[in-house]
Every structure is written in structure tokens, then in C-alpha cells.
């Protein structure tokens, strides 16, 4: 660090450099969830007095990002600029020099992170993450839409939220969240893509994902293990998994990998959907997974103030009652959600329908329903 170089300046440059380093310990890398100082991203800090300008300094911060062209580099540098410029003890002009870590330094960082996490981070004693697996008996009932809106609701309510698109064959979360980028690869460790406050991973984010995927058995299970163990999730408050419809390999894999997961069953009102939805809940008889509740989607369509039950009525309640009887504990009907073309259009436009354009939770009835569902799940 440099020495004080001018009597006109009233603060020791060494003190400024130490103070700035301390302030940067509160700048968090958005992907890794750690401070830039803890991650070794601050290579040097130099404060230089500005001649003939009392108590004013140029401050150069040398930043080493984890990868060249890091997609969040602007976010990080803006935070560093703010931490320097808002220093209360002197007038500081920040100068940020950005490079990337050497291969050896990055390898050491990734090795430290992997050693800390080692394997599936959600299946260790003391983990506080609440895990909700969203299931349905058949496709077309809006399971992925419910997952996306529920994840967005948790994030809007302030929870650190993650979501895994475990529907390998029918992945749709990237589109619902407007994601068009791939996860950042740090020497074999992937950073989830963050959209609308939710950390996301999906096979649909990778090149070639539009081609037919014919995975079965062990390979399918390995895909889930990779999503859990090879992605840096940090310590989210909530993890949601959008399961494939039915009771196939992925549902069993989730139960084996995440025995603390809670199942939420999605259905629509008509018997053809509710009857098979019961089967998706009965998987809990074979694996250590609790069914937390039922959500009935497309319950009605509102037309000129009248609720039209296009798909009939009572499906969610039937699923609730049958699962309660079969499993021997209460499986409540937790929500009934409307059929609204405007909501579908918003979701297909890349923004979860439960959010306003600024990312805040809607304050109308639809937003209130998802808020109530999220709060009930976390109770």
C-alpha cells in the first residue's frame, strides 16, 4: 500500500486503502453469493492524493473476475464504484481495472468451493432449505406455470429462491422466465442463471437441448444429481423442482436424492385430470416424501363478472380427499387458480404472470392467491 504523499491531504492513504477493502467485503458476487474480498477478486487497491485538492484522492481498484467476459461484471463494478465513491472520510474518485483470474487461481477457488460443498448440498444434516417438488399426473394442467409463478412469488417476498427444471423432456422454465443465456461454467462448476430474482437451471439452457432427449434410468437420475451437485446454489431458502408429469423415473430420483422434499400436486377440475393426479401423490407410499398439498389450476374463467367452470368443478377437492384417505394425514387443497388468457400471455412473454413489470408481486387477487400459497407452504 502507498504512503501519504501530500500535506494538503488530511487522510492517510493507507487508512483509505484499508477502509475501502473493508467496504468491499460487503460487495457480493451475485452468482456465488460471497463477497468479492472472500473470493479473492480484489487484487489491489491504490489511493493517490490529487494535487492541490484537499482531502481528494484517486482510488484504483484492481478486480479479477472469475471468468473473462463475466455476464455480471457490470453489476459487480457498479457496486465497487458505489462503495468507493460513497466513502465518508474523503472525496474519492474510483478507477476500476477489470481483468480475469489466472487459471491456477480460479482452479484453487473452485476447488475450495467444491470442497466446502462436496456433493448434493441439499441432503446434508442441518440444511434449512425448504424443498418443494411440483408434480402432476398428466401434462397440460399448468404445472410449470404454477412452478414459475410460485418461485417468482417466493423471490418477490424476499426469499433466496432457486428452481430446477427437472422436466427433462418438456422443459419450459427458461421460456417462462425469459432466459436465453447459458449458465457460466467455472472449471466444471456451473453458476445458475438468475431471472426475476430466481436462480434457475434447466437442460433447456444448453446447446442442443432442442433435440430429442431419450434418457432413461441411471442417466436420467444422473442429470438430477448434476443439477444438484455440479451447480453452485449457495444456501437458498427455497428450492422448487418442476417434475415431469406422472410417476416415472424422475419422481423416484427426486425422492431418493431429496428425501426432505415436500410434494405439491397440481390438477385441473375435471375427473380425467384429478384421477391421474391422485396417482402422482401416491408415489409418497413408495418413497420417503410427504405430500404437502394440492393446487387446482384453471378452476374457472371469469366472464362479465361470472365464474364459468369450463373444466367442471371439484377436481382439487377430490384429489385432496383421496390422498388424505390413502396417506393417513391431511393433504389440503391449498389454492384454486383461475384460467386467464392474459396471465398465459404474460408468462409466455418471459415474465412470470404473478409479477408486475418492475418485478414486484402483483397486488390483485391473483398475486394475493400466490402470496397466500407461498406463506402457507412456508408455515
UniProtKB/TrEMBL annotation:
<dbReference type="GO" id="GO:0051539">
    <property type="term" value="F:4 iron, 4 sulfur cluster binding"/>
</dbReference>
<dbReference type="InterPro" id="IPR034904">
    <property type="entry name" value="FSCA_dom_sf"/>
</dbReference>
<dbReference type="GO" id="GO:0046872">
    <property type="term" value="F:metal ion binding"/>
</dbReference>
<dbReference type="GO" id="GO:0140663">
    <property type="term" value="F:ATP-dependent FeS chaperone activity"/>
</dbReference>
<keyword id="KW-0547">Nucleotide-binding</keyword>
<keyword id="KW-0067">ATP-binding</keyword>
<keyword id="KW-0408">Iron</keyword>
<dbReference type="Pfam" id="PF01883">
    <property type="entry name" value="FeS_assembly_P"/>
</dbReference>
<keyword id="KW-0411">Iron-sulfur</keyword>
<protein>
    <recommendedName>
        <fullName>Iron-sulfur cluster carrier protein</fullName>
    </recommendedName>
</protein>
<dbReference type="GO" id="GO:0016887">
    <property type="term" value="F:ATP hydrolysis activity"/>
</dbReference>
<comment type="subunit">
    <text>Homodimer.</text>
</comment>
<dbReference type="GO" id="GO:0016226">
    <property type="term" value="P:iron-sulfur cluster assembly"/>
</dbReference>
<feature type="domain" description="MIP18 family-like">
    <location>
        <begin position="17"/>
        <end position="89"/>
    </location>
</feature>
<dbReference type="Pfam" id="PF10609">
    <property type="entry name" value="ParA"/>
</dbReference>
<keyword id="KW-0479">Metal-binding</keyword>
<dbReference type="InterPro" id="IPR019591">
    <property type="entry name" value="Mrp/NBP35_ATP-bd"/>
</dbReference>
<dbReference type="GO" id="GO:0005524">
    <property type="term" value="F:ATP binding"/>
</dbReference>
<dbReference type="InterPro" id="IPR027417">
    <property type="entry name" value="P-loop_NTPase"/>
</dbReference>
<dbReference type="InterPro" id="IPR044304">
    <property type="entry name" value="NUBPL-like"/>
</dbReference>
<dbReference type="InterPro" id="IPR002744">
    <property type="entry name" value="MIP18-like"/>
</dbReference>
<keyword id="KW-0378">Hydrolase</keyword>
<comment type="similarity">
    <text>Belongs to the Mrp/NBP35 ATP-binding proteins family.</text>
</comment>
<dbReference type="InterPro" id="IPR033756">
    <property type="entry name" value="YlxH/NBP35"/>
</dbReference>
<comment type="function">
    <text>Binds and transfers iron-sulfur (Fe-S) clusters to target apoproteins. Can hydrolyze ATP.</text>
</comment>
<feature type="binding site">
    <location>
        <begin position="137"/>
        <end position="144"/>
    </location>
    <ligand>
        <name>ATP</name>
    </ligand>
</feature>
Amino acid at each position: 500500500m502507498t504512503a501519504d504523499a501530500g500535506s494538503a491531504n488530511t487522510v492517510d492513504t493507507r487508512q483509505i486503502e484499508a477502509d475501502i477493502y473493508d467496504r468491499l467485503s460487503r460487495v457480493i458476487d451475485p452468482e456465488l453469493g460471497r463477497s468479492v474480498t472472500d473470493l479473492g477478486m480484489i487484487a489491489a487497491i491504490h489511493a493517490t492524493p490529487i494535487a492541490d485538492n484537499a482531502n481528494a484522492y484517486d482510488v484504483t481498484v484492481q478486480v479479477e473476475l472469475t471468468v473473462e467476459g463475466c455476464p455480471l461484471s457490470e453489476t459487480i463494478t457498479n457496486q465497487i464504484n458505489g462503495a468507493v465513491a460513497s466513502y465518508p472520510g474523503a472525496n474519492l474518485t474510483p478507477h476500476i481495472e477489470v481483468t480475469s483470474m489466472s487459471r491456477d487461481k480460479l482452479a484453487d477457488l473452485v476447488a475450495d468451493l467444491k470442497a466446502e460443498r462436496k456433493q448434493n448440498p441439499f441432503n446434508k444434516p442441518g440444511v434449512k432449505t425448504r424443498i418443494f417438488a411440483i408434480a402432476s399426473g398428466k401434462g397440460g394442467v399448468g404445472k410449470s406455470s404454477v412452478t414459475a409463478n410460485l418461485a417468482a412469488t417466493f423471490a418477490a417476498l424476499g426469499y433466496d429462491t432457486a428452481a430446477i427444471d427437472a422436466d427433462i423432456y418438456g422443459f419450459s422454465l427458461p421460456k417462462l422466465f425469459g432466459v436465453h443465456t447459458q449458465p457460466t461454467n467455472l472449471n466444471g462448476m456451473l453458476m445458475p442463471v438468475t431471472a426475476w430474482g430466481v436462480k434457475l437451471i434447466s437442460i433447456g439452457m444448453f446447446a442442443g437441448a432442442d433435440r430429442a432427449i431419450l434418457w432413461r434410468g441411471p442417466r436420467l437420475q444422473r442429470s438430477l444429481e448434476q443439477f444438484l451437485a455440479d451447480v453452485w446454489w449457495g444456501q437458498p431458502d427455497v428450492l422448487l423442482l418442476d417434475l415431469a408429469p406422472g410417476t416415472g423415473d424422475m419422481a423416484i430420483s427426486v425422492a431418493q436424492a431429496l428425501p426432505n422434499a415436500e410434494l405439491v400436486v397440481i390438477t385441473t377440475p375435471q375427473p380425467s385430470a384429478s384421477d391421474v393426479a391422485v396417482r402422482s401423490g401416491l408415489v409418497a407410499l413408495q418413497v420417503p416424501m410427504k405430500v404437502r398439498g394440492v393446487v387446482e389450476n384453471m378452476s374457472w374463467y371469469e366472464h362479465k363478472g361470472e365464474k364459468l367452470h369450463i373444466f367442471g368443478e371439484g377436481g382439487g377437492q377430490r384429489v385432496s380427499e383421496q390422498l388424505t384417505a390413502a396417506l393417513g394425514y391431511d393433504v389440503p387443497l391449498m389454492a384454486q387458480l383461475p384460467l386467464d388468457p392474459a396471465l398465459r400471455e404474460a408468462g409466455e412473454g418471459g415474465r412470470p404472470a404473478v409479477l408486475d413489470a418492475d418485478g414486484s408481486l402483483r397486488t390483485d387477487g391473483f398475486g394475493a392467491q400466490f402470496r397466500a400459497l407461498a406463506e402457507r407452504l412456508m408455515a
